[in-house]
Design a protein that fits this description.
It is built from 12 helices and 14 strands. The chain is of the alpha+beta class. It binds zinc ion (ZN).
């Protein structure tokens, strides 16, 4: 009671329909915003090196900054400070892990953590801990070196490309009062004082159906070279309601990252059927452009290249979203079981595999997080080692159980099913298994699975035709059988 619930924002990006004159004014504003952000960041970083912290109160007045006026100027400052704060907090986490993982004495670790907690990496003055001990100069120097090393390894936020986060002082989005083709209008202040403009916005069904409280701030961003408006909605209350209304119909559904389809489930669904073909289309387009640019001696990452990669990412995001939404509709699970997602696929180029490894997993995790917030569906990660070679019915594990990519035919019991569905069933079974803890090394898992199988089937099956005799996974077992002549 009385505690303020934390907001959960979702942003819907809406295209505008303004004329060229208005568009020029918004571009001018965005450019001024970005130059101010670059200047502001320079000042704020100077402050960080002096005091350890950026400051929302710190102002700079310089040409190129004043043109924005007081309100916009302050918004830029808050945005820059927010970004630097979150960057620093990530580096402070890296620092903590680095110190914890080091072989330094516990006393030095303790002192280094103290410096980190107070963000005093660059502080020139002496530092005294709570118990009165002063942190030695060499430890402070070590902290400084460590933190500088981390700053060099991670790119600082680039302010020259930021979008604007405009608050209610300078922007208001409202439904159209007159009957027009545009359901929404944004009224935004320009660089000319007292001369705001009205921007018609296009809408989507998706956005209109989004329940929650519209935030008063609006993002004005550049997307693929065009201006767009990101309207944020606080969905916290709506999510609480949908979580309470959610009635699971089964305990868990397991997902296996398929070769040709995006996901297979233990229930036998193959979801995202054109997945591989669509990826291959993106692959061809990206690879062709990269090759062309390399041949012409240009660097690969052009704006066209980036837009191709962005469109691949958009495809993945919308596919993952669509498919997981459908999964929830059809099965309504209390939990979703997944493997440690590895998007590597031999049917794709090295380049595309590299790109996928950069954000494939993130897109899935993002959606799963969304489902958790929205419906309270928990995600459980299990170890996928050998799950593609193990028969989900009898437990026999053999490389030869996979004669062709999508076929699973058990060499022990003859059972046949789709390989990805079989793998998903194994993942489901591993949800509660201790032998397949997600941190255990592959080899340990193989040994455990083989042992379990041999405990169930102690006798040779069909004499010399027992598939274990020609299966390298069972080499030790075979040696023992030969030794004891237990045939
Ligand atoms: Zn079998």
């Amino acid at each position: 009671m009385g505690t303020k619930k934390q907001a959960i924002y979702r942003t819907d990006v809406l295209p505008h329909r303004m004329n060229a004159g208005k568009e020029r004014q918004v571009w001018a504003l965005l450019h001024a915003w970005r130059s101010a952000a670059v200047l502001q960041a320079r000042e704020q970083w100077r402050l960080v090196f002096q005091t350890g912290y950026p400051s929302k109160r710190h102002n700079v007045s310089r040409t190129g900054y004043d043109v924005l006026g007081t309100s916009y100027g302050q918004m830029v400052r808050w945005q820059v400070v927010g970004q630097i704060e979150s960057y620093l907090s990530n580096r402070a986490n890296d620092y903590r892990e680095l110190v914890n993982g080091s072989s330094l004495s516990s006393e030095v670790k303790h002192q280094l953590h103290f410096v980190n907690r107070w963000q005093a990496w660059f502080k020139p003055e002496a530092l005294t801990m709570k118990d009165g001990t002063e942190i030695p100069a060499e430890v402070r120097k070590l902290a400084r070196v460590l933190f500088r090393h981390l700053l060099h390894r991670h790119r600082k936020p680039d302010m020259s490309k930021v979008g604007m986060i405009v608050d209610q002082r300078c922007i208001a989005v409202a439904p159209s009062r007159k009957a027009t083709a545009y359901p929404l209008w944004a009224r935004i202040s320009t660089l000319t004082k007292g001369k705001p403009i009205e921007v018609p916005l296009a809408s989507y069904k998706h956005f209109e159906q989004r329940q929650g409280k519209r935030a008063l701030s609006v993002q004005v961003i550049e997307r693929d070279g065009e201006l767009a408006f990101g309207v944020m909605t606080d969905v916290a209350d709506a999510f609480t309601a949908s979580r309470e209304a959610y009635r699971p119909r089964c305990e868990a559904v397991a997902l296996d990252l398929g070769l040709k389809t995006l996901f297979a489930t233990d229930q036998g669904d193959l979801l995202g059927r054109n997945w591989l073909e669509r990826l291959q289309e993106h692959d061809r387009r990206i690879t062709k452009l990269a090759r062309h640019r390399q041949k012409s001696g240009l660097k690969v990452r052009s704006s066209r290249y980036k837009s191709y990669v962005a469109s691949l990412r958009g495809f993945i995001r919308s596919e993952v979203g669509r498919i997981l939404n459908r999964l929830v509709e059809t099965h309504a699970p209390a939990e979703i079981v997944i493997e440690r997602l590895n998007f590597q696929n031999q049917a794709l180029s090295k380049r595309l595999n590299r790109i996928l490894s950069r954000f494939g997993k993130n897109e899935v995790m993002r959606k799963l997080k969304d489902l958790e917030q929205r419906f309270g569906i928990a995600t459980i990660e299990v170890n996928p080692a050998y799950s593609s070679q193990e028969d989900s019915v009898c437990g026999y594990i053999d490389k030869r159980n996979r004669p062709r990519q999508e076929a699973f035919i058990c060499r022990w019991c003859g059972g046949q099913r789709h390989a990805d569905v079989n793998a998903a069933r194994n993942l489901l079974a591993r949800r509660s298994g201790k032998t397949t803890d997600s941190r255990r090394p592959k080899q340990a898992i193989l040994e455990a699975l083989v042992r379990q199988f041999n405990e169930r089937f102690t006798r040779l099956k069909g004499g010399a035709t027992d598939p274990r005799l020609s299966n390298p996974y069972f080499r030790d077992w075979k040696a023992q059988v030969m030794l004891t002549g237990d045939c």
